[in-house]
């Protein structure tokens, strides 16, 4: 027999819910500035972000987190434009009537306290809101303000980060134990021969391995899993499988001087516990100051304070943490960015615009942003032979510019 053709290294399956319509939730202990940050985000960029109220089950106030009159109960959702210099450049080139950037869907979630996983306060309801998002902005308070009560008495970001991680992990343990029970019940009648029985046994073995991992004090996202295991894990919808970006809320002064006694400690905690995770220091107070200003005024205040807004960096980081990329459609009517997940094939990418584009997919005429930028115009890119016809197997690349052709 001829040797098997090598297809290169196996592609790693992405952890998380499949799909392109992914959401990020703002998570943290109570009173750390989550809602203030959410409001700034949804108000920023001249009000282009649209704030939608969720029809979510309205829950009553939590007695444990009632530390201020604005305590979040039901989650709110906003679509935040994600800054991208390529999009701006394309708009300059096409001067379209309508411009639609990429958006990150962001959800403000109520504060979690120690004991949330066992249902303290409205812990279970709030954790179910975390289950409904795909990624986490973890808001960490490092600002001092005697006026703003901390739910645990004093400011201690390491305790807060640990509280959140522990609650998410404990909930995952409970969830995984339930899954094992269900699988065991279903597997009593299993034999040793059929493929389906074998798959069920493998699934149970994976879930048991996940439970062991969690019981060892580790989170799912930091495990080394095979693609088969990831398929099983994705079915479990575990909280600690979600990517986290740590947002450290500093006072304006500390943010401007880039110094705060907690920052090195938080960095060390991340390095030790969740190496590779991103930490972004910023200041909600400073962002609140900038939010209502126009571009010129913003510039002035940023100069005076000696710091720049971190909002763009934060939305970009959140978008990337969800493995999202974008492609563009361009023309005189509209320049628009379409969000897809890394690894999306052409027909599914076209389907983000309209399901017919996917169902009746013929091909895509695709050029790269870099080629367009280099050549200066679509005609020049065409003349250089760099507009390519791509079929169903084509995997989209971040920054592709596409024209879809679909059958009638
Ligand atoms: N000094 C200072 N106060 C802040 C800052 N961010 C938020 N606050 C104040 O802290 C209090 C709580 O802010 P929220 O944004 O409602 O906090 P939260 O994290 O959403 O709280 P929960 O929804 O209860 O979990 C409010 O009184 C804010 O004005 C900040 O950066 N500096
Ligand atoms: Mg809130």
From TrEMBL:
Please state every residue range assigned to the domain named OBG-type G: 22-302
Q: Which Pfam families match?
A: MMR_HSR1, YchF-GTPase_C
Which is a Gene Ontology cellular component entry for this protein?
cytoplasm
Signal peptide from the UniProt entry:
none
Q: Which PROSITE patterns match?
A: G_OBG, TGS
| Sequence ranges of Polar residues compositional bias | 62-73
Q: Which InterPro entries match?
A: ATPase_YchF/OLA1, Beta-grasp_dom_sf, G_OBG, GTP-bd, P-loop_NTPase, TGS, TGS-like, TGS-like_dom_sf
UniProt KW keywords: ATP-binding, Nucleotide-binding
Could you tell me which residues belong to the region Disordered? Answer: 60-80
Ranges of residues in domain TGS: 323-406
User: In which domain of life is the source organism classified?
Assistant: Eukaryota
Ribosomal protein as UniProt keyword: no
Q: Name one GO molecular function term.
A: GTP binding
Query: What PANTHER family has UniProt attached to this entry?
Result: OBG GTPASE FAMILY, OBG-LIKE ATPASE 1
What is this protein's record name? Obg-like ATPase homolog
Q: Which organism is it from?
A: Mycena indigotica
What does the organism's lineage look like at the top?
A: Eukaryota, Fungi, Dikarya, Basidiomycota, Agaricomycotina
């Amino acid at each position: 027999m001829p040797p098997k053709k090598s297809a290169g290294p196996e592609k790693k399956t992405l952890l998380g819910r499949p799909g392109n319509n992914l959401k990020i939730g703002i998570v943290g202990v109570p009173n750390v500035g989550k809602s203030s940050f959410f409001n700034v985000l949804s108000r920023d960029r001249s009000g282009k972000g649209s704030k939608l109220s969720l029809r979510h089950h309205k829950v009553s106030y939590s007695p444990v987190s009632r530390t201020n009159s604005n305590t979040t109960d039901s989650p709110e959702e906003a679509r935040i434009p994600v800054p991208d210099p390529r999009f701006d450049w394309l708009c300059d080139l096409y001067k379209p009537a309508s411009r639609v950037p990429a958006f990150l869907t962001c959800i403000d979630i109520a504060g979690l306290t120690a004991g949330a996983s066992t249902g303290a306060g409205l812990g279970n309801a709030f954790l179910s809101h975390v289950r409904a998002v795909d990624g986490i902005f973890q808001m960490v308070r490092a600002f001092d303000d005697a006026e703003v009560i901390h739910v645990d008495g004093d400011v201690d970001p390491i305790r807060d980060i640990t509280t959140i991680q522990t609650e998410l992990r404990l909930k995952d343990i409970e969830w995984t134990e339930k899954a094992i029970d269900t699988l065991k019940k279903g597997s009593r009648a299993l034999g040793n021969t059929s493929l389906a029985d074998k798959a069920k046994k493998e699934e149970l073995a994976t879930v048991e391995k996940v439970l062991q991992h969690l019981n060892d004090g580790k989170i799912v996202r930091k495990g080394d899993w095979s693609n088969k295991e990831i398929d099983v894990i994705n079915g479990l919808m575990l909280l600690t499988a979600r990517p986290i970006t740590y947002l450290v809320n500093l006072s304006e002064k500390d943010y401007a001087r880039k110094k705060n006694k907690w920052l090195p400690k938080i960095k060390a905690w991340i390095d030790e516990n969740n190496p590779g995770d991103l930490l972004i220091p910023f200041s909600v107070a400073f962002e609140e100051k900038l939010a209502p200003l126009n571009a010129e005024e913003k510039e002035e205040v940023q100069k005076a304070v000696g710091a720049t807004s971190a909002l763009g960096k934060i939305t970009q980081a959140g978008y990337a943490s969800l493995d999202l990329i974008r492609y563009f459609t361009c023309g005189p009517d509209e320049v628009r960015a379409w969000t897809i997940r890394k690894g999306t094939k052409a027909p599914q990418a076209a389907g983000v615009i309209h399901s017919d584009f996917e169902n009746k997919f013929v091909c895509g005429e695709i050029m790269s942003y870099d080629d367009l930028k280099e050549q200066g115009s679509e005609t020049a890119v065409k003349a250089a032979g760099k507009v390519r016809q791509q079929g169903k197997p084509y995997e989209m690349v971040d920054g592709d510019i596409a024209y879809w052709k679909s059958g009638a």
